[in-house]
Amino acid sequence: MSLIKDDRKVADIFTRIDNDAAMPESGSVLVTAERLEAEWEALASRADPVGVIWPNNRPVVDLAPYLSGLAVVALVFPIFRDGRAYTQARHLRERHGYAGELRATGNVLRDQFLMMHRAGFDAFEVTKPGDDDAFTEALRRYTMFYQPAVDGRQTVLRQRLHSRGIG
Amino acid sequence: MYIYDQFDRTFLQQRVAEFSDQVERRLAGQLTEDEFKVLRLMNGVYLQLHAYMLRICIPYGTLSSAQLRMLAHVARTYDRNYGHFTTRQNIQYNWIALKDLPSAMADLATVGIHGIQTSGNCIRNTTTDHRAGAVAGEVDDPRVWAEIIRQWSTNHPEFTYLPRKFKIAVSAAEEDRAAVLVHDIGLRLLDDGNGRAVFRVMVGGGLGRTPFVGKVIRENLAPEHLLSYLEAILRVYNAEGRRDNIYKARIKILVHELGAEEFSRRVEAEWESIRDGYLKLDEVAISDIRSRFRYPDFEALQDAPSELVAALMNPAFARWHENSVGRHKVPGYAIVTLSLKPVGGPPGDATAEQMDAIADLADRYGFGEIRVAHEQNLCLPHVRQKDLPELWRELDAIGVATPNVDFITDIISCPGLDYCALANARSIPLAEALTERFADLDRAKNIGRLHVNISGCINACGHHHIGHIGILGVEKNGQEFYQLTLGGKADENAALGQLLGPAVPYDGVVDVIERVVDTYLDLRQGEDEIFVDAVKRLGVAPFKERAYVAD
């Protein structure tokens, strides 16, 4: 598995802690939603960063109380064609103002990188061989975007108006 | 006509390049069939019974003559010389080889047409009234709004992996010719009483195995809020639509399970948080889209010019004129429907030669513009009335002047078992048999307005639920049977048909329909009471009583 963050391959400093695993004394951890809710006080007092893996069938409004204490929110694509996490990502970024790492995890493939990026993801757990090296190319595949999204890329309309000296 | 500029063309080239790369990776084994399937579907590529099928969208049903010629070129070069127009203003090619797809797509892209989002669980081609901009009484041109929706929904970063496909239709005229009530979202442009256009928003309509008529969830939506409101609907659906069962995944099921009121409440809550955000359409944005539509430079003419009046002495011309020519909003002009429903032919097919000839006629007589109708016919929306006699001779020569528009032989049909991997039964041969039985034009005219819709399976691509007579192919012990429904309607008073009675084997369908029609002729209150109104008045019982009894 490769982790791509801010367009580069990086080491993943987070350890995944399952529901029944022991919590290490120190180090960055990525916990389940259940543990986040049950053990928040202890998690919030840790010196090292804490993140959560949030399932795609729960609204992220439930995550709102914890967001300021989280370094990573990992949203799940159980299969690449299950697109619920795109909506969760936009809610986190646009409604809840979450500015930390937003990680795509699960069945994360190169043909979806750009849409994920546009929806607000900035970190990608990539498992398919070759897809990590194709990341930069995938993000540059398009220069034309018809609708505004989280990424701030200029829309076709704005480009067009700009080219005419309007706006 | 909406004119593509360099930005739209660049986008299309990038899309073609992306798909070419995906085809290469599939052929090299880097993409699994499961991964590739979703990507090819979103480019309009289906795997059918015998070959790949390519579905090309014709946004809001408007084509230029150059685009139609390119459709002819693709039919001739990569397929078997014909294309099939569908009920959603698309064209399908049934015999394209996978290796030819990128070339066909690149050719189409040169004239700004493509198969993007004609399939897959994404927002599909936004459709509208094929008479938009030509018919009187519209508060605004619905194509402008369909184009705004098309742009917003293209490669949408949030709504490309929805629970299921998603179809939007817009109409603005008094008569709804876009079947907006049987779409996931239906939009009607209405006058708010002060000459300002506003939208009525309907959700949860649809056919398939659980048909519903859409429910109104909002009245008087100001146009500047259209996209934020659509985004709110789609967002609720993307988050909450069912993904556990493909047959319950359409938005109509979510609306039905939550109830329209609760669904509407959730949409409104979502909308409140985004309505004044970056999707709000300002006048600059709307006028930019509007300015890219080119309208014909109409001459100042009078209705009923002498050329037309003289030609009406010819009974064959007069028959066609009465049937296939509609009123235009500009005096001296007319809207001409080209019937793709010849007797004994498959509904909605056009050959490359026909497409080329129609493109030439559009240039000569119709400002180079062609429309594709939801009923699988073509249309020249702006023809000078004095040109009608000449145009008629030319259309007749290429076989698209059958005066059967809206008659019993103007059949809507899916491709059925002859092409489709999902079908249980044949559709096209049945349609052909029906057109032969009712080939007599006087008889068809006497029967009057009667829409027959045929689907080869429960997925309802032939919209059988909303046919005045609906025919659904089912399989019984390995044999083709057909269920008949009566009284369906696709218009502004959309209704689902009622089951007539037991399913009928293939060989019996035409006879049963003939007896249903004879019953109507016996029971109607004069010629003004069309078939579907008689069914509404009488119910199904008197038809059922006679339909199954051989004479």
TrEMBL record, chain A:
<protein>
    <submittedName>
        <fullName>Oxidoreductase</fullName>
    </submittedName>
</protein>
<dbReference type="Pfam" id="PF06073">
    <property type="entry name" value="DUF934"/>
</dbReference>
<dbReference type="InterPro" id="IPR008318">
    <property type="entry name" value="UCP030820"/>
</dbReference>
TrEMBL record, chain B:
<dbReference type="GO" id="GO:0016491">
    <property type="term" value="F:oxidoreductase activity"/>
</dbReference>
<dbReference type="Pfam" id="PF01077">
    <property type="entry name" value="NIR_SIR"/>
</dbReference>
<dbReference type="InterPro" id="IPR051329">
    <property type="entry name" value="NIR_SIR_4Fe-4S"/>
</dbReference>
<feature type="domain" description="Nitrite/Sulfite reductase ferredoxin-like">
    <location>
        <begin position="52"/>
        <end position="109"/>
    </location>
</feature>
<keyword id="KW-0411">Iron-sulfur</keyword>
<dbReference type="GO" id="GO:0046872">
    <property type="term" value="F:metal ion binding"/>
</dbReference>
<dbReference type="GO" id="GO:0020037">
    <property type="term" value="F:heme binding"/>
</dbReference>
<keyword id="KW-0349">Heme</keyword>
<keyword id="KW-0004">4Fe-4S</keyword>
<dbReference type="GO" id="GO:0051539">
    <property type="term" value="F:4 iron, 4 sulfur cluster binding"/>
</dbReference>
<keyword id="KW-0408">Iron</keyword>
<dbReference type="InterPro" id="IPR036136">
    <property type="entry name" value="Nit/Sulf_reduc_fer-like_dom_sf"/>
</dbReference>
<feature type="domain" description="Nitrite/sulphite reductase 4Fe-4S">
    <location>
        <begin position="119"/>
        <end position="272"/>
    </location>
</feature>
<dbReference type="Pfam" id="PF03460">
    <property type="entry name" value="NIR_SIR_ferr"/>
</dbReference>
<keyword id="KW-0479">Metal-binding</keyword>
<dbReference type="InterPro" id="IPR005117">
    <property type="entry name" value="NiRdtase/SiRdtase_haem-b_fer"/>
</dbReference>
<keyword id="KW-0560">Oxidoreductase</keyword>
<feature type="domain" description="Nitrite/sulphite reductase 4Fe-4S">
    <location>
        <begin position="406"/>
        <end position="546"/>
    </location>
</feature>
<dbReference type="InterPro" id="IPR045854">
    <property type="entry name" value="NO2/SO3_Rdtase_4Fe4S_sf"/>
</dbReference>
<protein>
    <submittedName>
        <fullName>Ferredoxin--nitrite reductase</fullName>
    </submittedName>
</protein>
<dbReference type="InterPro" id="IPR006067">
    <property type="entry name" value="NO2/SO3_Rdtase_4Fe4S_dom"/>
</dbReference>
<feature type="domain" description="Nitrite/Sulfite reductase ferredoxin-like">
    <location>
        <begin position="346"/>
        <end position="397"/>
    </location>
</feature>
